Amino acid sequence: MKIKSSEYKKRNMLIWNEVAPRYHKRWATAKHGPFQSTKKLVDLVKVEKGNHILDVACGTGVVTKFLNQKVGKSGYVIGVDTSITAIKVAKKWNEKTPNLLFVNADAENFLFKEKFDIITCQFALFFFPNSQKALKNMRNSLRKEGKLGISVHGHPDRVPYFDSIFDAVTQFIPNYVPLGTPDFDRFGTKKQLKDEIKKAGFSKIKVNDYDFPYSPGTFEQYWKNYLRYIAKPIKEKLDKLEKSQRKELKEMVRKNTKPYTKRNEIIQFPWEVLILTAKY
Question: In whole angstroms, what is the distance from residue 103 CA to residue 206 CA?
Answer without folding.
Answer: 29
